Amino acid sequence: MSAKDEMLKAIPHQNRAAMLEENSRGVLVTIPMKKRWWARAPLTWVFPLSSARRVQLDAMGAWVLSQCDGRHRVEDVVRQMMEKHKLSFQESRAAVLQFMRMLSERGIIAVLPGKK
Amino acid sequence: MQTFAWQGIQFEHPDDWECVRFSKKRQRGECALADPRGRRLSLLWGRVEAKTVNATMILEEAAAQLGKSDPKGALLQRKWQTLKSAAGWSGIEWRGAEEDLTVAVGYFADSGHLLQAQFTTDRKCDLALQRRILESFHCQKPGTAWRWRAFGCAVRLPSEYDVQSCDVFPGRAALSFATRGRKQQRVRIERFALPEAQLKGRSLKDWFASTLDEPKRVLGSDGTKIGRHTGVSVRLKPGRPTPLQLLTRVKRSSRAAVWVCDSEERLYAAEWEGAVDGAPQLEDVVSCCGKDSR
Q1: How far apart, in whole angstroms, are the C-alpha atoms of residue A72 and residue B150?
Q2: Which residue from A71, B114, B211, B245 has the highest number of Cβ atoms inside 10 Å of its Cβ?
Q3: What does pTM read for this prediction?
Q4: Which residue of B has its CA nearest to A96?
């Protein structure tokens, strides 16, 4: 199985600690961050460091995140996206994989290998 | 089956195949089509004289190369020919360790195109489909109107127009064509997915004006019909002239057509810029709804 196929068979899971809040622009995702040893007074008096990371998603991003429920494979999300927005498979795959990589880098989701 | 047309070469392919690699060169180049499982067809083209074409030698070289790159593979069928096509395709079949390959070579004497098509299959080789694709190939002659059909865009332009740029991103394809010389003509076609996300409630004219770079700007607009769709026809201030156009004071103008194709759910923007005489009708150049341009 090629790396591309493995990625399509992988299953994205949403970070359980992430908090979702709907707003007019879509969904605001808040992810609590581990407190760094150096993030303490008096540094925090000068630089107010946030204890959480916030990511604003638009409606389409929120939909992709809603599909990252540990049940759908990446390929399922790609195919659903393709049908929903009349995209071609390659277009949909590129968009979904790029977006999932961004979500993964920000700690919102984790993509685990699917069953072979 | 769908039509793929690029650089004067045209053929039919299954609906789930898409172009994933392309070359902008007319004389010699390569393109590849893939389905969701992987690459299915690689096509190499070159414009050569008939006397230099030796299909047998090309196939022997291809078989030797396959033997080196895949020592576990074996040549299944030494040579076959299709007579239905003008190109007189001949080919070999290779059973590889991981995938099967069919390499075919054809020559179109009318246009001088030498083509090498390589089909890749990871399952059972569908020879009937491969022959059908090969028989659908035809090359367009210089001096005629050429069809371009790729990335969802269907364009028909005189053969003097050559592709200048091709930008393909998820949900967006942009093709630019231009002629050479003092009276240069440029045509740019952009096709966007999710029209509502692009427009964000703006009118077609306002959206298009927001996409223009300096020194281009909208001079005026009118409602127009493009095929079955209602769109806007926009008069534009042309961009910067080339040094030759500046020196020889070529009178230039620019206009565009913008519309939404409801059946494809795509937003189209077609823009022309060039010397005043010889302007094409944008409505005749680009087509949508899966139809070919007139």
Answers
A1: 31
A2: B114
A3: 0.82
A4: B170
